[in-house]
Amino acid sequence: MENKRLKTKVTNVVSFVPNGDYYYNKALKAIERDEMDKAYKFIKRAADLSPDDAHVLLQYGILEMELQNFEHAYELIHTAYSLEPNESEIIFMMAEVSGCMGHIADAQKYAAQYLDMEPNGTYTEDASEILEFVDYVGEDMDDMEEFDGAKHVAQEKARRHMEQGDFKTAIEMLEQIIEEYPDLWNAYNNLALAYFYVGEAEQARALLYRVLRENQGNLHALCNLAVFAYYEKSSEELNELVGLLKKIQPFDWENRYKLGATFALIGQYEDAYKWLRSMSKKGYDGEPGFYFWLAQSAYFSGHETIAKEAWKMLIQLDPSKEGMEPWANGEGSILRNSAENHRDFIIRQLTDEHQSSRLFGMFLLKRSAHKQEIVAHPSILNVSNFTAIEKLCLAYALDYDFSNGSKEEKQFLRFMEVAEQITEVNDSISLEVAQVLSTWFALGEIAFEQGYSFKNSAALAAAVEYSFHVALENKVTKKAVAGKYNISTATLSKYNDELYEFVPSDFE
Length: 508
Prior knowledge:
Protein name: FOG: TPR repeat
Organism: Solibacillus silvestris (strain StLB046)
CATH topology of the domain at 339-507: Cyclin A, domain 1
Low-confidence stretches: 8-16, 330-335
Structural class: mainly alpha
Shape: elongated
Radius of gyration: 28 Å
Keywords: Repeat, TPR repeat
Number of helices: 27
CATH class of the domain at 339-507: Mainly Alpha
Largest sheet: none
Distance between the termini: 80 Å
Order of helices and strands: HHHHHHHHHHHHHHHHHHHHHHHHHHH
InterPro entries: TPR-like_helical_dom_sf, TPR_rpt
Mean pLDDT: 83
Helix content: 55-70%
TPR repeats: 20-53, 54-87
Number of strands: 0
C-alpha cells in the first residue's frame, strides 16, 4: 500500500499557540517532504496535546505501523476507532493493523466493513487484497476467532502506565479489567506486580495465590512469587520456587520469555541464558526487553559475544540504551567477580538499616552493570526517605555533574575520592577490598557529618587500609601500605591518627 495511507492534506489555518492541531499539521508537512523522523516527533507531540483526537491518533498509529511497532499502533488505532467508529479510513486501518498483529478474523471483519462503506474508496483495492488473503489462508485456520480489541488495549495501557512508574493508575485500570474479565489471569498477575511495587506485598501475594488456586500451575504467577521472594530476601521460599521453575519446560514463546527474564532478574543467569538463547536461535524477533535480558544473562554466564550481539539488537530498537551495557564499566572477566557486579550484595547494602552501608551500596552502584535495573526498580531506592548525604551519593552514582558544587558538595566529593583511591589502587573490589571500603564508609560518614575536610585522599585511603589489616591482625607494615599509595610512612601515621578520631566509642 506504500505510503498512500499517510495523509497529505494540510489545512491552511494554524493556531498561533502550539496545540495538537499545530503539531498534527507539522507532521503532515514532514510526511510530504518524506522527513519521517520529524513527522514522528511532531505526531507524538500532537497526540500528547490532543489525546482524544481520533485523526491524530490514527496518523500516529499509521507511523507506528511503518516502524513495525504493531502493538502500539494497534492501541492507537483502536482508540481512534472507539472515538469515531463510523469513520471509514479508521475502519480500514483497523483491518490493516489487525492483519499485522495476526488477528485474521478481525482483519476480515474490518476489511469487509470498509468495502460496504466505500466500494470505490481510496483503500478499496487494499481491502480486497486483505479479503483475498483471508480466503487463501482460511482453509488452514478453521478456528479463527474475533480478537477482543478493547480488552487488549486496556491491558496494554495498564502495562504502559506500569513501565512509566504510574502504578496507581495501572492499579485502577487493572482492577476494572478483572471486574469485566474475571478469568483474565494476565491482568491478575500484572495487578499483583503493581501492588507489590507500591508496597502492598500482602495484597500482591493474595492475588497470585488466587490465580494459582483457580488456574493451577500458572507460570507467570509462580515467576512473580519468585521475584517477590527475591526482593524480600525470603531465601527458603526463593530456593523452593527456583527448584520448581527449573523443572518447568515451556513450549510457547510467552512462557519461555517470562521464565528466562525471571531467572535473569533473580540472578540465575545460566538458566536465563538457556531459555532466552533457545528463543533467539529459533528466530524469535523480540521486543527491547528480550534483548536486554538476553544480553544480561549471556554476559554474566560467560557468553560475551552473544551478549554483545544481543545488545546491538537492543540499541537498534531502543537507542536510549546506548552506554548502559553490562560491560560498560569495565571489560574482562576480572570485573565479573568484583563486588560491583554482584547484584544481591549491592541490594543488601542499599536496603541495609545502616546509612554507611547504603552509601557503600550507592558507590558500588555507580560502576555496576546492574545500575539501570536497580535504579529502575520502584522499591529498592526509597529516595523520599533519603538523608542529605544519601541524596548526594545517589547523584554521584548517577553521574551528576558537580562542577559548580557548593562547599558541602565539594566536601562530599573529597569523601568519595578516598573510596575511589582504594578501588583504583586495588584494581578490583574483591571481598577484602569491599571490607576495606565498608570500613571507610562507616568512618567517613561520621567524618563528613563532623565537617572533616578530607584533604589528602591517598593518605586517608592508606590509613583506612592499614587500620583494617591491623584490626584483623594481618601481617602488614606501614612502609608497605604507604608505598602502595605513594605516600610517606609519616604521612600515613598522621592520617591514621586523624582517622582514629572518628572510630565510634563502642568499637575502641
